[in-house]
């Protein structure tokens, strides 16, 4: 019954989405308030029904109802409860259901909290949301129904792919989808603006928080995915320029550009057409990502099953939405009035540069991702575009961007003083140079570019701090005044500081990890000792253990430094009998931001075991950076000007703050 | 600055960045992309030693030999030709004889493929897509290779799922 109810709820959600797609548009045309308000109730009801459908699938998985094909293929009665729940989206059908659930959630949020939106804008936005939703409900119901029954139910399930049986599955896909799908809101706002033929600064003020929310989740989702790959795959890599990773990076780059251009639009009423285009492109790239991952054109841990009809269906959705929205843009964009003049050297100019570099970097990643596919289809030969390509293209563009980052927030709107800003950034520049010199003198080996890159990271961080110091008058004014001013500073200014500093932090982590990573790969016997980066790891022994749905072999390492025992590390190798496959569980020892990483290989006939030990200096900075960025995003989101219905600043004193 | 001059500055800047990116991409395409070959293609084309490429095929059953200190050798076959591969390191969890494999590296002077990476971008139910496609194209695809992959296709429809 549960499966049938879930299926039925999904069909009802499709019906509601179809109503929501059409009726509000008619209402907007006829200026009929009742018809326009249908959008609101339909969106909320849709959320209710999709939620019910999703809950049904979760219940089926929790109850281990193997008469449902999806549960049979991806679950096992002995699986721990948490993986029974997360296993719901650890497969194609379930992950698509999660996708539409999140889409409905965002639609519902707009419906519930969009009371201050003009009625027709809200009707249009929700109608566009419903178009997307209808397309994906159809996709699920036609090609990937998660509620299919099996005629002769088996007793036991086939278990979830062991690699996915990890806490990462509970966090990474929902976060990533919240990001991907969150950009649908700015897309819908853009299409609604094009349909209405009206766009202004208020539009940007409504769109920015939604974009920011999506961006925060996407940032965390990507970082989480990267950390998961790092500890789960057993070879310490955290980014592979795999098409699937690129599929998430592209919307992030475009979304970051969108955040910045929406800022220009909100403050200065300029770059309107460009912001609209970016909104469309960002969500188009999210759809492209969904296509790449879900259609099976590329093989990876993310592509759960390949079924050509699914690929064709998503490709159709992709063409329909991207083609349709871009044609609408081409037809209507010229009608929108441009406004807000600015000199090339100004805050707006800097943000244009930011947008330019981000979108071009995004285009480069797009090219690298699609070129091999295009070559395969057109010229019939196979090739791969990997890290060397991106090192030669993406890295220089991002270096330029990072060089410019500290300048942006310090330039004035409309007309900036580049020379003055350079003078104020002198201290940050000197800090960067000093660090370059120190790193240069201190380290031997590694790329000559590494100290320069670290210097750049320090410059970005110091630049963010300089910006803060300038705004608060730190070092110039008495500390009490500076503190008072810091408190009065808009939250979004703090957000900028944290997000920009996060970039520098991540850069330093990336450079240190790739340059000074040391590794030991070899076979070890009991009581043998491996030396790496000043640590001694003694293999104490190998033990067998029985887990809930796997057997594991644990190796115990005694970690010491200068004869002093630090800790015990226990990497393991798990073999899952149902799927006949094994996973490597790496052991991590964190010291500050650096990590010691041990993973196991095969055992040899003589009882020795192959081990991989890495020392990764400052590796955690790679993920602390994005966390800082996301924190900056949260601060900016809590800014009073973005809060719905927030009262205007009452005290005149606060207005005297430097314009943010 | 007039409105026109401002616009020209921005357009000029954009074009400069685009030109820079295009130059970077073209430069990178010259020497950083890696082609995919099967043993038959290697035999036909006489790939020169030292040129990096990706080798895909099936691990020849019975060819896997483990040497000292994690050195391994095995043969990659595609039904038409075989190529010896040498690798030093830990093989991926999913490496099996008779299963598909993709390795990246280059040929040495003796015609042995020195792999520095052995990829395991596939789970246990299907072959690397590149390998399956190449085998099919060369007409060496047999259903028993496909025993596992076929199971995947069937998996969508286990025991007559109600569609």
Automatic annotation (TrEMBL), chain A:
One of its GO terms (biological process) is cytochrome complex assembly. It is a multi-pass membrane protein. The chain crosses the membrane at residues 6-30, 42-62, 96-113, 125-144, 175-195, 207-229, 249-266, 273-292, 312-330, 351-374, 394-413, 425-442, 448-469, 618-637. It is found in: Cell inner membrane. GO terms for cellular component: plasma membrane. Its main location: membrane. Keywords: Cell inner membrane, Cell membrane, Cytochrome c-type biogenesis, Lyase, Membrane, Transmembrane, Transmembrane helix. Pfam families: CcmF_C (PF16327), Cytochrom_C_asm (PF01578). Residues 315-640 form the Cytochrome c-type biogenesis protein CcmF C-terminal domain. GO terms for molecular function: heme binding; heme transmembrane transporter activity; lyase activity. The keyword Cytoplasm does not apply. It comes from the Bacteria. Residues 89-295 form the Cytochrome c assembly protein domain. Belongs to the CcmF/CycK/Ccl1/NrfE/CcsA family. Required for the biogenesis of c-type cytochromes. Possible subunit of a heme lyase. This is Heme lyase CcmF/NrfE family subunit. It comes from Bradyrhizobium hipponense.
TrEMBL record, chain B:
HAMAP family: CcmE. Residues 143-163 are annotated as: Disordered. This is Cytochrome c-type biogenesis protein CcmE. Belongs to the CcmE/CycJ family. Residues 29-163 are extracellular. The gene is ccmE. It comes from Bradyrhizobium hipponense. Heme chaperone required for the biogenesis of c-type cytochromes. Transiently binds heme delivered by CcmC and transfers the heme to apo-cytochromes in a process facilitated by CcmF and CcmH. The lineage of its organism: Bacteria, Pseudomonadati, Pseudomonadota, Alphaproteobacteria, Hyphomicrobiales. Residues 1-7 are cytoplasmic.
